[in-house]
Amino acid sequence: MELRHLRYFLAVAEEGQFTRAAERLAMQQPPLSQQIRLLEEEVGFDLFVRLPRGVELTPAGEAFAQNAAVVLDTLQQGLSHARRIARGELGSISIGLTSSAGFHPLTTHLIRAFGAAHPDIEIDLAELNAAELIERLLARQIHLAFLRKPVETPADLAFTQLLDEPMVVVLPLGHRLLAGKKGASAAAKGGTNKRMKGGTPAIPLEALAEENFILVRRPGAPGMYADILAACRSAGFLPQVSREVPRMLTGIHMVAAGLGVTLVPASMRHYDHENVAFCRLSNAHGLSAPLHLAYPSEMHNPAAGRFVAFAQARLASGLDAPASR
Q1: What residues contact residue 323 under an 8 Å CB cut-off, 6+ apart?
Q2: Residue 123's domain is classified under what CATH number?
Q3: Full domain range(s) for residue 52
Q4: What distance in Å separates the CA atoms of residue 150 and residue 146, rounded to the nearest whole number?
Q5: Residue ranges of the HTH lysR-type domain (predicted)?
Q6: How does pLDDT run across 119-139, given as a tens digit for each residue?
Q7: Over the stretch 309-321, which tens digit does the pLDDT of each residue have?
Q8: How far apart are CA 196 and CA 194, in angstroms?
């Protein structure tokens, strides 16, 4: 028994005669009559009572018609569901992000805007370091990742740069580089935006030559770690890395405790810590913090592919996300 036999049978049952059913099915009446006879032979009972001007269902035929309709309706629903998944309209996405990538408003803006546009796609988030994100992408354990700068770009992965933002210096309140700067302490206590807009000085990278640096561990963020070392060398010194931490937020807490200084993307200023000041670099020696969207070169998850297309379309249109001021 084939699905077409069920469609033939239901068409005859609904039309009440072979002629109209054949027209509806765009076929000739004799082949249709033959197919119904073959179906009756297969099921082992008569489906129709043949009348002079048509047919009517037998009691057994009525019962079979109800179930046949359910089968075809269930199949149609399943096909429609599968088509939506294939088009990326339905499904789930696992997105990984580094802590610094998560602090940039563009990241949450894209995720939120995509979720609003595609409410039938479930989104799961996981915070990991850059190295872990690359590893999980390659293992197909996550579908997409927002991260800063990977030191390696495996051939199996693609990277779309969404933006580039400056790096800033994080200093503890009372630091010598803040001394004598009117309003620095008040600005630091007055909230995140005030700390960057006024009161804190712009500091050349060279001024940090004697400082103890707190950096995210090299294995966890190899690209950014390497860039910081390169920029410091360009500024004429090798940074004294006194501590390595698993996350940038941990580094900011250590700065607040007076254990050193650190460099973070400017958007990390949204983490409002009252015991630190975020200062611009007056000479960054090429140091910056790009934000990337990473994903498999061959996308097997249609919903994730739709997210990539969504992000790239926003990038092409100017990324109407809140700016990182």
Answers
A1: 105
A2: 3.40.190.10
A3: 3-86
A4: 11
A5: 1-58
A6: 999 999 999 988 899 999 999
A7: 999 998 888 765 5
A8: 5
